[in-house]
Amino acid sequence: MARHPSIADDELLARLTGVFQDLGYAGASLVALSEATGLKRASLYHRFPEGKEQMAQEVLSAADAWVSEHILDPLKSNDPPEVRVRQMKKALNQLYSGGKQACLLNMLSSADVDEGPFSNHIRSAFKAWIDALIAVLVDAGFEKELARQRAERAVALLHGSLVLSRGMGTTRPFKNYLKDVERELLG
Amino acid sequence: MARHPSIADDELLARLTGVFQDLGYAGASLVALSEATGLKRASLYHRFPEGKEQMAQEVLSAADAWVSEHILDPLKSNDPPEVRVRQMKKALNQLYSGGKQACLLNMLSSADVDEGPFSNHIRSAFKAWIDALIAVLVDAGFEKELARQRAERAVALLHGSLVLSRGMGTTRPFKNYLKDVERELLG
DNA sequence: GTCTATAGTAAGATAGAC
DNA sequence: GTCTATCTTACTATAGAC
Predict the structure, then answer these.
(1) Which of B5, B33, B39, B48 is most deeply buried (CB count within 10 A of its CB)?
(2) CA A22/CA B113 separation, integer angstroms
(3) A27 touches strand C (CB under 7 A)
């Protein structure tokens, strides 16, 4: 028996994502990953032969794909800047569960001080996000260097609001961020 | 022999701090802590009988003391608001080594999802910081609710700039933050 | 594809010599 | 106060039955 997956790939990755978001890479033990997914450790190794590192890599890739579809692509659309930013806003609220979930990029940075297995991935994820925002701001009429500064600031503020939300045990900082992000960028 | 400490308490705590900042709580193994301090594991247990958790607690307390002396007290002084903020700026640059070091509060949050051993400490550290900034802003003439929002935003932006600096492998976000923090708060 | 059982390794922690 | 040596537990990973 059990010749078929007891959990779909999407759901599996979502559960793993949650564990890495909550505990970071070092803190995400196979026991925790196993309990979160309902799969025994050996079953996890069947799906991810290279173990925990592969799980984190695939979790990162899945997050990348989600962000591309729900955030970056909309930001690159031909809609007016305010519309594009508002779409990002909705997606961010989903991505971080209204401020209850930490950012994967922050939680997986812990693993690599100098050059870890996720450094390149994380760096390019941040860069892609900032670049997409720069394009929106340039479209909105901002001079390029100012656009870069504002975009970088908006991404920093987002991640800081998540750090603060987690640290203070309230989603208020994140919610305030969402409320102000449009003005923060375009105002 | 070896009847006297081979490393002073201050230096010891500083080294431990660095490890927790780089690796987080779960990632900071006793081997890493031992190598960073030059003390064997058994010697670390002699100084911290309750082990790793005690080390992290004392590291947090030492950071608290440093922040109180170099940031919070100056913020509570009678100097003009701009002077107080400029003092904070200098201290922040030291505390985070110009953006090369992550924030301890962020790195130790990973350990506790719901209520971990550091939650209260972290929460009150954030709160103390924000409250001190609120007082400065109120002194500068801002209405209280606006002061709270600006203070919280400045703290979030700081932590986000550190997340971004680490993730992108450049201290630029942090340096930009420092450059703008006075205007961000009082402008 | 999932499981139980188990190997192998690294982690946290202690005992006792100097 | 620091060390070597050791213990115990937890973690990562694999083997093989179903």
Answers:
(1) B33
(2) 6
(3) no
- Which of B110, B170, B133 is CA-nearest to residue A156? B170
The angle subtended at Cα A167 by Cα A148 and Cα A28, nearest 5°, is: 95
Per the domain annotation, does B132 fall within a domain? yes
Closest CA to A160 of A117, A87, A96: A96
Residue listed under structure tokens 């440093």: B66
Nearest residue, CB atoms, A166 vs list B109, B149, B152: B109
Closest by Cα among B136, B144, B154, B8 to B75 = B136
Q: Count residue pairs from A and B with Cβ separation < 8 A.
A: 115
Residue spans of beta strands (DSSP E) within chain A: none
What does the pLDDT read at residue A127?
A: 98
Enumerate residue ranges in chain B where pLDDT < 70: 1-2, 111-114
Q: Is A176 on the interface with B (CB under 8 A)?
A: yes
DSSP 8-state assignment for residue B71:
I
**What domain range is B150 assigned to?**
58-186
User: Would you say residue A35 lies in a domain?
Assistant: no
Calculate the CA dihedral of residues B83, B87, B89, B94 and round it to 10 degrees: 170
Predicted structure pTM score = 0.97
* Total domain count, chain B: 1
- In strand D, the nucleotides that come within 7 Å of a protein beta carbon are 1-5, 10-16, 18
pLDDT single digits (tens) A42-98 = 999 999 999 999 999 999 999 999 999 999 999 999 999 999 999 999 999 999 999
In a domain, A102, yes or no: yes
Partner residue opposite A173 with nearest CB, options B26, B122, B156: B156
Q: Tell me, what CATH number does A123's domain have?
A: 1.10.357.10
Q: Say if B161 falls within a structural domain.
A: yes
